[in-house]
User: Which sequence fits this backbone?
């Protein structure tokens, strides 16, 4: 858990009489002066990590426990490790909700990225009257909380006849994610070298082709960062599906998202207690996000620091 | 192959009054290697980008061959450009980088491959065709950028300081390679650089720009021997020409303790404009060290100018003496080239005389050349 910062008692070999070059000395001295700060900051980070990791670990562990164990001491260890509970949770509706969420996200994230990248690129790279105004409009979209717009949004989607439909939620997700996407990619496209675009133009590219075949591939780190951000945000979105994805009639198919499904599962507990299934459902919901994040972690970091490189 | 014509081409950046390129008038012959040179901000890159179509032309025209390309987009101009930072596509392999333009033009795959491989062979890139640009050294990237240009077999090559990111040794090497390649391909080339040595060594002709205005276009030899004005005189040549303001006298101009003969009409013209002085230019290698042999103006003093040595740069074959001399009551810095075996010591006093026929005389007020 703890990170070795600095050995407080240097090994005797280090105290040898041989004078070490100044250059090697400098970083060591730097670490000396920062020692106290390092202990403090690492301690703080360790505490923070525990605060984040412990509840998550607790959820995963709880899905292996029985109702009785969950009701008992929080510190007991699961007695038998069986994945049967995950199957149970999946069949209790989590599977359907999972699928709904995947369908919606497949389209909403793809469209957000496509539209966001196109808008950001044009705003960042082309000078035209109203350029700044449009950009500020996009950015302003990120300024006000979604709750303020919930009621008008509900009526708007209802008037379009898109309540409890995939396409309705997809469109809302796209609109909801565009401001940040445009904001982020706008600054990212600004950092890309103009000469590459010019080279593409001289090589005979049209604007469209230069964008899709040259600029987008170069912007991959930025696209990945903001893409993952959008996946996380939309996967965990609750208030929007809650408002827009309610069954409108008895015959209506249930298009609930995973988050809604989990809440329903939790609410049912009052009547038919299956706590392990709830925890298993939450674990299932966490997994894709974790997988996405872990597999692209390197690119995300590259994307976030892209402006500082080169 | 084609000629290139700048016909009073002008570029004024939005929000500025002064033209970045002001009525540029150059005719570039078919197959010629023209170098645009000048200090930074002189408009040389802007001129090149106007020719490339990356910069608008506000006035005048640009023609490639007989085609007026003034307002054509870059892709319709049949040009290829090498950028200073190479601008390679980082996500494509070397082969894809070089073949990208052909792919867009709809050339079939086998043809693209043969042309790319041919260019790679010329540039010694064959073994790197499968690599991405980031796995290449600076010199290799530069060659890929060159390859991307020659694969297309365009009418005109444009090069925007393609060597400035290379280290000094590689730059000298690549300089000759590019010049040789251009001679072999015979493609009209416009080359931008701020390095006057590059300009002198590579170009068939050199165009010197300053503040958006063309100062002189000429062969490197003529540029060196007969600079058209003070700016060109000071810019071309390293170390720079010594430029000293001296008073006009009868039959010439007085330079220290000797007379530099100058065309009578030129002196008259300068005097007419109210100039009492002219500026004499002498290249460091055109000073002869006089040890009392040359004809002196005043009998009791040795001939020429007394230069007190401050610094000596020894380059092996020869040495440059940086010294000060009192000319017309003012202390002037003077650079003199001396033989590598006769290098003076610091603090010594040399008497130097400008070699007859190798001096340049410029009007002090207008900067124009007065001597032939």
Assistant:
């Amino acid at each position: 858990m703890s990170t070795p910062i600095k050995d407080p008692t240097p090994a005797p070999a280090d105290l040898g009489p041989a004078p070490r070059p100044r250059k090697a000395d400098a970083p060591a001295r730097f670490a000396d002066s920062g020692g106290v700060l390092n202990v403090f900051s690492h301690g703080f980070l360790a505490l923070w990590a525990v605060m984040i990791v412990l509840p998550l670990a607790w959820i995963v562990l709880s899905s292996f426990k029985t109702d009785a164990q969950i009701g008992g001491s929080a510190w007991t260890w699961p007695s038998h490790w069986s994945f049967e509970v995950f199957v149970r949770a999946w069949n209790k509706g989590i599977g359907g909700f999972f699928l709904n969420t995947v369908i919606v996200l497949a389209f909403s994230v793809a469209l957000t990225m496509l539209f966001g990248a196109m808008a950001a690129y044009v705003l960042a790279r082309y000078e035209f009257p109203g350029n700044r105004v449009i950009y500020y409009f996009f950015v302003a979209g990120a300024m006000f909380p979604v709750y303020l717009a919930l009621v008008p949004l509900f009526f708007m989607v209802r008037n379009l006849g898109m309540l409890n439909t995939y396409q309705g939620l997809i469109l809302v997700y796209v609109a909801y994610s565009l401001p940040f996407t445009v904001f982020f990619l706008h600054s990212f496209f600004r950092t890309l070298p103009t000469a590459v675009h010019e080279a593409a133009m001289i090589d005979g590219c049209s604007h469209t082709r230069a964008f899709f075949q040259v600029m987008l591939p170069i912007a991959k780190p930025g696209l990945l960062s903001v893409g993952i951000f959008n996946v996380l945000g939309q996967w965990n979105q609750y208030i929007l599906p809650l408002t827009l994805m309610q069954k409108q009639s008895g015959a209506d198919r249930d298009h609930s998202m995973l988050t809604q499904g989990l809440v329903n599962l939790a609410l049912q507990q009052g009547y038919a207690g299956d706590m392990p299934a709830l925890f298993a459902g939450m674990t299932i919901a966490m997994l894709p996000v974790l997988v996405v994040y872990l597999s692209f972690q390197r690119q995300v970091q590259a994307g976030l620091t892209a402006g500082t490189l080169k | 192959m084609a000629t290139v014509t700048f016909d009073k081409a002008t570029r004024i950046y939005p929000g500025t009054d002064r033209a970045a390129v002001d009525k540029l008038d150059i005719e570039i012959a078919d197959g010629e290697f023209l170098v645009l040179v000048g200090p930074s901000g002189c408009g040389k890159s802007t001129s090149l980008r106007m020719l490339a179509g990356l910069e608008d032309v506000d006035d005048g025209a640009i023609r490639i061959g007989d085609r007026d390309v003034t307002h054509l987009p870059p892709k319709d101009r049949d040009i290829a450009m090498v950028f200073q930072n190479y601008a390679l596509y980082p996500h494509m392999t070397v082969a894809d980088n070089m073949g990208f333009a052909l792919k867009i033009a709809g050339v079939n795959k086998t043809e693209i491959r043969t042309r790319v491989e041919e260019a790679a062979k010329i540039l010694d890139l064959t073994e790197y065709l499968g690599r991405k640009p980031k796995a290449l050294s600076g010199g290799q990237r530069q060659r890929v950028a060159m390859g991307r240009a020659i694969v297309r077999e365009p009418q005109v090559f444009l090069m925007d300081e393609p060597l400035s990111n290379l280290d000094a040794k590689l730059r000298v090497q690549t300089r000759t390679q590019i010049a040789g390649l251009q001679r072999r391909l015979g493609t009209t080339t416009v080359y931008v650089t701020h390095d006057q040595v590059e300009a002198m060594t590579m170009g068939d002709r050199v165009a010197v720009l300053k503040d958006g205005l063309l100062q002189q276009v000429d062969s490197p030899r003529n540029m060196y021997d007969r600079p058209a004005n003070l700016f060109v005189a000071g810019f071309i040549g390293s170390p720079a020409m010594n430029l000293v303001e001296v008073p006009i006298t009868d039959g010439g101009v007085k330079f220290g303790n000797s007379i530099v003969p100058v065309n009578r009409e030129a002196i008259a013209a300068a005097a007419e404009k109210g100039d009492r002085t002219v500026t004499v230019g002498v290249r460091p290698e055109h000073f002869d060290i006089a040890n009392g042999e040359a004809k002196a103006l005043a009998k009791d003093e040795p001939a020429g100018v007394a230069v007190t040595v401050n610094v000596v740069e020894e380059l092996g074959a020869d040495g440059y003496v940086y010294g000060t001399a009192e000319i017309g009551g003012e202390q002037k810095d003077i650079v003199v080239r001396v033989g590598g075996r006769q290098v003076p010591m610091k603090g010594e006093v040399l008497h130097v005389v400008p070699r007859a026929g190798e001096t340049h005389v410029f009007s002090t007020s207008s900067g124009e050349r007065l001597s032939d």
